[in-house]
Structures are given as C-alpha cells and as structure tokens.
Amino acid sequence: NAGVTQTPKFQVLKTGQSMTLQCAQDMNHNSMYWYRQDPGMGLRLIYYSASEGTTDKGEVPNGYNVSRLNKREFSLRLESAAPSQTSVYFCASSNGAEGKGGYTFGSGTRLTVV
Amino acid sequence: DQQVKQNSPSLSVQEGRISILNCDYTNSMFDYFLWYKKYPAEGPTFLISISSIKDKNEDGRFTVFLNKSAKHLSLHIVPSQPGDSAVYFCAASRRGTYKYIFGTGTRLKVLA
Q1: Which one, out of A32, A66, B8, B101, has a CA that is 20 to 30 A from the CA of A88?
Q2: Exposed e or buried b for every residue in B55-64, given b needs 16+ CB within 10 A?
Q3: Minimal C-alpha gap between A112 and chain B (Å)
Q4: Per-residue pLDDT averaged across B57-83, rounded?
C-alpha cells in the first residue's frame, strides 16, 4: 500500500522554467491538497481539491496552477519558476468527512529555483 | 495573519520526562484540531486529534488538551522517548472548509 506518491523527490530549476509536480494516491480518498513548507513558516496550503472535478485556492496560490486529473491524481504546475518558490512541497489526501481524520502526506518534493 | 501559532520553535526534554507542546489559534470557528509529527526528509504523519466538543483526548503516551475559551491546545507526551525527537505541527480546521491551517511547528529534542 503506497499511500501518497510524489514525483520527483528532488528538482533544480532555473528561473523562468516550468515544471509539474505529480501526486497520486491509492487510498480512494476524495480530497487532495498541495502544501509548501518553508523555514519558520510551517505548512502553507497552495491549492486543494475537495472532490474530483473541483479545485480551490489556498493561502498561497500565486504562481501555481493545479489539475485534478482523476480521483487518484492531483498535479501542481509552476509556469515560470521564481527563486521564491524554492521550498519543499507536500501532497496530501483525505477521506474524512470535511477533512476530519487528518491527511495522509507524501514524502515531499524538494525544489530549488536558481 | 497567522491563524494558528506555535510560539516555541524548539523544546528540549530529558528522556522519561513530560514534553508539553503548545498551540494557539485566533479563529473561533475552528472546530477540529490535529497534531502531526515530522521527521527529516519525510512527510508529516498524523498523531492525534480532538474535536471542539471535547477538552481532552488520549492515545497511549500522547494526550491533547483543548481550552476553547483561551483558544489554546497542548500536546503532552509522557514519558518522552528519544524516538519522539521530531518537528510537531498543530493544525486546525473549520467545518465545511475541507482544509487545515497549520502552525509553524515546534522542534522537540528528547535527550537520552
């Protein structure tokens, strides 16, 4: 049982390049999330998808786009990477009613933008 | 504006003693709270939760206390073990929003 799988685990981008972070869950969860973790800032919500076919902005959505490809997959796209987007990105999923029961997180993608 | 605050960035405790991690929130609409533990190079893992209809929840060595009037929750770990050394995040949710707001984390170090 893989849980939540994120790819890639590490990535270095040049300013202005684009890339897509992939996330897939095999727990049949309805809701999926993208967070970023920065020193002293904790985990901040970028975008989330409460259910297949819906996406909503979180606390820090600027510079990102998302796609809920199907129930299993939720991707995060950086169209033009900036050094401020250097961070560790975590994907999570949840099936509790209204998010209760907490998330299952992936192991993260460490992104560096130079 | 930080809606969920963990004012202690770090905490050191002797093995066998009690660890108390604190969390404050500002939004009175939050009605569900969780604690997560995170080891380096891993994703956070769920530890324990509490609903706003309770003021205490226990799971083995871990107990979470909720004081709604003070908008404060705390995580007690008794007895603390070296394997508990990690970063602990509290998180809060409001019914109907499908999302959690996280605090900035507290790094716990349990000394052997």
Answers
A1: B8
A2: eeeeeeebbb
A3: 15
A4: 97
Tracing tokens 């995580």 back to the chain, one arrives at B75
Handedness of CA A7, A28, B92, B41 (dihedral sign): negative
- And the tokens for A87? 């961070």
Strand partners, A88: A37, A110
Q: What is the pLDDT of residue B97?
A: 75
pLDDT digits (tens, 9 = 90+) for A80-95: 999 999 999 999 998 8
Q: Does B109 score more than 70 pLDDT?
A: yes
Chain A touched by B101 (CB under 8 Å): yes
A19-40 mean pLDDT: 94
Question: Across all residues in chain A, what is the average pLDDT?
Answer: 92
Which tens digits make up the pLDDT trace of A53-71?
899 999 999 999 999 989 9
- Strand ranges (E), chain B: 4-5, 10-14, 19-25, 32-38, 45-51, 56-59, 62-67, 72-77, 86-93, 100-102, 106-111
Contacts across the A-B interface (CB distance below 8 Å): 68
Q: Which among B42, B89, B93 has the least Cβ separation from residue A107?
A: B42
Nearest to A100 among B32, B43, B103 (CB): B32
What confidence score (pLDDT) does residue B1 get? 67
| Amino acid present at B1 | D
Among the partner-chain residues A4, A42, A90, the one whose CB lies closest to the CB of B103 is A42
| Cβ–Cβ below 8 Å for A105 and B45 | yes
Chain A residues 41-60 with CB within 8 Å of chain B: 41-45, 48, 50, 58-59
